[in-house]
Amino acid sequence: MPVRQLPETIVNRIAAGEVVERPASVVKELVENAIDAGASRIDIFSDGGGRRKIVIADDGSGMTAADLALAVDRHATSKLDDEDLLAIRTLGFRGEALPSIGAVAKLSITTRHASEPHAWAMRVEGGDKTPIAPAALTQGTRVEVADLFFATPARLKFLKTDRTEAEAIREVVRRLAMARPDVAFTLAGEERAPVTWAAALPGAPGQLIRLGDILGADFRANAIEVRAEREGVVVEGFAAAPSLTKANALGQYLFVNGRPVRDKLILGAVRAAYSDYLPRDRHPVVALFVTLDSREVDANVHPAKTEVRFRNAGLVRALIVHALKEGLAREGRRTAANSAGSVISTFRPASMPPANWDWRSSPSYPVGGSAAPSFAERAQAAFDVGAPSADIRPTEVTPDLLDRPLGAARTQIHETYIVSQTRDGLIVIDQHAAHERIVYERLKASLDANGVQRQILLIPDIVEMDEATVERLVARAEELAKFGLVIESFGPGAVAVRETPSLLGKTDAAGLLRDLAEHMAEWDEALPLERRLMHVAATMACHGSVRAGRVLKPEEMNALLREMEATPNSGQCNHGRPTYVELTLTDIEKLFGRR
Questions:
Q1: Distance between CA 211 and CA 399 in Å, rounded?
Q2: Distance from CA of residue 262 to its chain's centroid?
Q3: Residue where one domain finishes, among candidates 163, 197, 231
Q4: Are both 290 and 396 inside the same structural domain?
C-alpha cells in the first residue's frame, strides 16, 4: 500500500481521540480556556452526560474576529508568547482542543472582545467550518458543543451511562474550582439543582473556604494548613487530620502551577508523609498546590495534560513530605475522635417506651406474695452492676494537673482505659495505643541521635520458624540491628536472638520476630530504606508498649499522660487509631439535655 497524506478531517479526528476521550474532557478543555481568558465567572451546563449538549459561558476577555477564525485551526494558540515550549504559564497550550472538538461534534462559538463593536459567531460540524458572522453577546465567550461524537459513532459505544459521565464532568469542575477559588463557578443540568461556588478572597482563608464548600464541612473542621518552600519551589495547601480518611486515594487533590494533575510522585510523597499516622488500608484527604518555574516542569507529557514531569523530582517530593510532616506534627494532638461532634454522635438516647406500653409489665412492678421482692428491693437491684474492674476511689489531685492538656488521671477502667479530669471536662485514654506512640517516637529519636541502645541476653532466645521466614529475617539482619535487635541464623529453621532494644524491656522475642517477618513479606526493593526502618520501629513499639489488661497505679497513669503531652503526634498510635477521646463539660451537659 503506497504512502499517502491523510485528509485534514481525518487528522483532526485522530487528534480528537487523544484530547477528547469523553464529555468531561471537553468540559476540562473549555473551562481551562475560560480561566486563561481571565474569566471571573464561568457557567457550565450539560445534558445527557454531556453527549447531547455542553455549554460553557464566561465573562473573560473574548476574541476578535481574526482570533476566532484561527482558534479552530490545528496548532493555533494564544498560550505561547514565542516558540519556547517550556515557557507555559497557562492551563492550555497544545492547540488541538477546539479543532479536535469540532472534528467530532457540532461546535458553536460566540465571542466578543472589548475592542469589537459586537460579538462574532462561528460553527464547526464534523470538521466543516462556517463563515464568521455577527452575533449578540455582551461580554466574554459562549461555547456550545452538541451531539458529541456524531462524526465518530464508534466512540459512543465506549461511553458510560449518562449519570456516570455527568459525575465525571462534576469531578472535573470540582478540581478546577479548587484550583481557582477567585473564580465563581456554576454547574447546572442533568436534572439537578444548580451548584454555585462563589468567588472567595485571595490567600489561605479564601482557599480553605472554597475547599470546604467542595469537600465538605468535615474537611474544613479538620484541615491543617501546610507550607514549605525551597529553591523556588513552593508547596502549600491543606491536609486533613489523620483520622479523617477514605478507603481510596480519590480524596487527594493535587495541583501544579494551578493545573489539576494525578501524579504518581506526589501521591507517593503524600503516602510517605502519612505512613506514621494511618493504617495501610486508609488514605488521607489533602489538597496540595505546587508552584514552581514553568521551565522546571513539563506539562505536556500527556495529551490531556493530566500528568507532569519535574526536572528536580527529588526536591518536590522532599518538600511535600516535609510540609505534611511539619503540619501534622504541629497539630499532632488533633484527631477526629477527640472532637466533640464525633464523640457525641456515638451516643444514642435511650429509646422511649411506646405509647401503648403497659407499665404493669415493668420488671419493677411489685408482685403479690411474701416471697416476691418489694418495689424498693427491685429498684435497688438495678444498681447492682458487679464488682468494679479497677479501684475507682477518687485520688487527691493537685489543681495544676487539671490545667494540663490531658488533665489528671482519676481511674482506670477495664484495665485498658484511663479516665482523666480536666478543668472543663474529661478524657478517656487508650493506654496501649498511647504508650505505643511514645515508644515509637523514642525509637525514632534514638535512631536519629546515636542509635538504639541494646541489651545483651545472657541466654539467646531461639525462635523456630519455617526456612523461608528465617531467610527473610536474616537477609534484613543489618536493618534490624539499627534498632538494637541482633539476630543470626541458628540452623535451617531457627533464628537466635542475641540482643534486643533496651527501650522494649522484657519482650516476647518470638512474637516480635513473627510480626516483623509478616511485614517483611510485603516489602519489595522499591520500598525506601527509611520506610522499611519505620515499619520495624512501629512493630517494635507495639510489642514494647503497655498492654491492655495491665493494672496501672495512679502515678503510672499520670506519668503516661505527661509523656503523651511531651510526645509528638500523640493523638494517634502508629496504626492510625486515636489514642484518646475528649468530652467537655458542655458536651456532657448536651448529652443529658442540660443545654
A1: 42
A2: 13
A3: 197
A4: no
Beta-bridge partner residues of 185? 42, 197
How, if at all, do strands 184-189 and 41-47 pair?
parallel
Helix, coil or strand: residue 489: strand
- Tell me: do 180 and 245 sit in the same domain: no
Contact residues for 592 (Cβ-Cβ < 8 A; gap 6+) = none
Task: Assign 318 to helix, strand or coil.
Answer: helix
Q: Quick one: 151 and 210 in the same domain?
A: no
Q: Give the alpha-carbon dihedral of 478, 483, 486, 489, to 10 degrees.
A: -50
Q: Specify if 464 maps to a domain.
A: yes
Q: Which domain holds residue 426?
A: 337-346+389-595
> Are 267 and 249 a contacting pair, CB within 8 Å?
yes
Provide the grid cell at 526: 522499591
CATH code, domain with 294:
3.30.230.10
- Residue 265, Cβ density class (10 Å: 0-12 exposed, 13-18 middle, ≥19 buried): middle
Phi, psi at 550, each rounded to 5° = -95, 130
Report yes or no on 544 lying in a domain. yes
Let me know if residue 239 belongs to a domain: yes
Q: Is residue 180 domain-shared with residue 291, that is, in the same domain?
A: no
Say if residue 173's pLDDT is above 90.
yes
Taking only the tens place, the pLDDT of each residue in 501-534 is 776 677 777 777 877 777 676 655 444 545 555 6
Same domain, 396 and 419: yes
User: Number of folded domains in the chain?
Assistant: 3
- pLDDT tens for 39-68 read 999 999 999 999 999 999 999 999 999 999
DSSP-assigned states of every residue in 238-259: EEE-TTSEESSGGGEEEEETTE
Decide which of 330, 356, 381 is a domain's last residue.
330
Q: Do 306 and 419 belong to one domain?
A: no
Going by C-alpha positions, the residue among 300, 303, 267, 302 that lies closest to residue 285 is 267
The three cell numbers locating residue 574: 502508629
DSSP for 523-545, written as a single string: --TTS-HHHHHHHHHHHHHHHHS
Residue 410 and residue 479: Cα distance in Å, rounded? 42
Residues 480 and 571 in one domain: yes
Residue pair 529/479 in contact (Cβ under 8 Å)? The answer is yes
Listed in sequence order, the residues at least 6 apart from 134 whose beta carbon sits closer than 8 Å to its beta carbon are: 118, 119, 120, 121
pTM: 0.70
Whose grid coordinates read 480553605?
A: 208
Q: Cα(130)–Cα(483) distance, rounded to whole angstroms?
A: 74
On whether both 271 and 167 belong to a single domain, the answer is no
Share of the chain above pLDDT 90, in %: 33
Position 579, amino acid = T
For helices 264-273 and 313-330, the axis angle rounded to 10 degrees is: 30
In a domain, residue 384? The reply is no
